[in-house]
Amino acid sequence: MLYDAYELQQSWLTGASIAAGIGAEWLQSPINPLSYTGVGPLVASGLDVFAHASARRGKPDFGLDMTIIEGREVAVREEIVLRKPFGQLKRFVREGVTGGPKLLIVAPMSGHYATLLRGTVERMLPSADVYITDWHDAKLVPTDAGTFALDDYVDYVIAFLEAIGPGAHMLAVCQPSVPAYAATALMSEDGDPARPRTLTMMGGPIDTREAPTVVNTVATQRPLAWFRQNVIQTVPYYYPGHGRQVYPGFLQLSGFMAMNLGNHLMSHYRMFQHLIDGDGEEAAATKAFYDEYRSVCDMTAEFYLQTIEDVFQQHKLPKGELTYRGRKIDPSAITDVGLLAIEGERDDISGIGQTQAALKIATKLPDELKAYHLAKHVGHYGIFNGRRWREEIAPVVERFMAAHDAA
Fold first, then answer.
1. Distances (CA, A) of 189 to 165, 185, 318, 330, 337
2. Is pTM, for the whole model, over 0.85?
3. Do residues 47 and 130 share a domain?
4. In which domain, by residue range, is 401 found?
5. How far apart are CA 151 and CA 303, in angstroms?
6. E strand spans, 96-244
7. Quick check: is 246 in a domain?
8. Domain tally for the chain?
9. Domain's final residue, options 278, 293, 308
10. Nearest CA to 130 among 161, 101, 98, 87?
C-alpha cells in the first residue's frame, strides 16, 4: 500500500515538476517583460528549485568517456564482463592502454546505484584497470530470477573476482566491506588463486559496536520483526519484479535526508540564491549532486533484513559467528592478502573504529600486510568522492596496491 501511495504521489509531482520547469523558463525568457523586473527572477528561481527537487529520476550514466594518463587524453568505454540477474561486472576499458593493477570496486547495495561511486572510478582510472559491481534495481528483476541475500552477494563478489582473474585488488566502499571481507576469507581458506591481492575497506560496518552512529542506533533499537512489518513492501504489478518483497529506495533516501535535513534545506536555499544571482555554475553543481543522491533503487527484502540482523544487530563477523551457506567465516584464514582500512574523522554513518576492526580480527595476517588511514576532516561521502578523496585518500590506496604488487 505504501509503495502504491508513493507511486501516486510521484505521478502528481512529475506533472507539477514539468509545469514548474516550463514556468521557470518562461519567466527567464528575454521576450517576457517580467524577466526584467525584480519579482520575475525571484519566482523563476523558486520554480526552478521546485522543478529539480520534484523531478522523477532513473538510473544515471557514469558518463566517463575519457581520462588523462601521463598528460594525454585516453578514450574510455564501458564493457560488461559478466552478467547476472541482480548485477553485472562492468569494466572501464582504457583504449590503447595495457597493464596497470586490476581493481574491482565493490559498490554498496544500499539504495543508490553504483554511479554514486563515479568520482571513485574517475580518480582511479589513470592508474588502474577498473572494474565495478553494477547492481540492478530489485524492482526490475523478475521473481523467477530467485532471491538475493547476503550469501548471494558473497557469491557475486567471488564470481566477479574469478572473472577478472588472479592478481586483482578489491576496494569495498561502506556496506560491502562485510561481504567483501567474507569473500576474501572464504577464497583464502580455499586457496583460490583469484583471491584479491589487497582488500581496501572504506567506511565499512565491520564492527558497529565501535563508536555507534545514529544509523547503528536505528538498526538496533527495534527488533527485526519491526523492520519486516514496517519497511518491507511489495513491488507493484507495473514493474518487471512485481510481487517481489523489497526495501524501497525511496524509504532509504527519506532516512538519509532526515538525518541531515537542515543541511539539505540549506543546500537548496543556497541553490535558490545562486539562481537569483545568476551564478549558474554553482547552482549546476548542487543540482548534479542531488541528481545522483536522489537516484535510488530497491533492495531485496532478504538482503536488507539479513544485513540488519547479522551486521548491525548481532555483529556476527567480528564475533566469529557469520556463516556462508552453513559454513563459518574464519577471518584468521586471511594470511596473505593486504588489508587497508580507511575511515573518515567526521563519518556519521560508520564511526571511527568500525572499519579498523577488520585488521584486528585477521589474527593470522602479519602486521606488515595491515594498514590503517584516518582521513582528517572527512565525512562519509568525502571518503570516496571530492577533493580530499582525489588528493589525499586515493594516493594512499594507490601506494598500498603498488607495494603489494611489488612484493
1. 17, 6, 17, 8, 11
2. yes
3. no
4. 66-219+299-406
5. 9
6. 102-106, 129-135, 169-173, 198-202, 233-234
7. no
8. 2
9. 293
10. 101
CA distance readout (Å), 65 to 12, 92, 96, 100: 36, 9, 14, 19
In this model, does residue 257 exceed pLDDT 70?
Answer: no
Query: Are 162 and 319 within 8 A, CB to CB?
Result: no
Residues 317 and 272 in one domain: no
Cell numbers describing residue 389:
578523496
202 and 176 in a single domain? The answer is: yes
Residue 349 lies in a domain: yes
Same domain for 308 and 273:
no
Residues 189, 215 within the same domain:
yes
Which residues contact residue 196 at a Cβ distance below 8 angstroms, ignoring those fewer than 6 apart?
104, 161, 168, 169, 170, 184, 187, 337
Domain for residue 235, yes or no? no
What CA–CA distance (Å, rounded) separates 27 from 155? 54
Backbone Cα Rg of the chain: 22
Q: Are residues 116 and 47 in the same domain?
A: no
Same domain, 394 and 374: yes
CA distance 45 to 34: 13
Look at residues 180, 182, 184 and name the one whose alpha carbon lies nearest to residue 172. 180
Cα dihedral 379, 381, 383, 388 in deg (nearest 10): -80
Question: How many whole angstroms separate alpha carbon 400 and alpha carbon 16?
Answer: 50
CB count within 10 Å of CB 285 equals: 12
Query: In Å, what is the CA distance from 361 to each residue of 22, 201, 347, 374?
Result: 57, 14, 22, 19
Has residue 387 got a pLDDT over 90? yes
| CA angle, 384 then 389 then 393, to 5° | 105
* pLDDT tens for each residue of 136-180: 999 999 999 999 999 999 999 999 999 999 999 999 999 999 999
CATH number of the CATH domain containing 149: 3.40.50.1820
Give mean pLDDT, residues 230-239: 91
Instruction: For residue 351, count other CB atoms closer than 10 A to its CB.
Output: 22
pLDDT per residue as tens digits for the range 79-122 = 999 999 999 999 999 999 988 999 999 999 988 899 999 999 99
- The residue among 247, 273, 293 that closes a domain is 293
* Shared domain check, 340 and 266: no
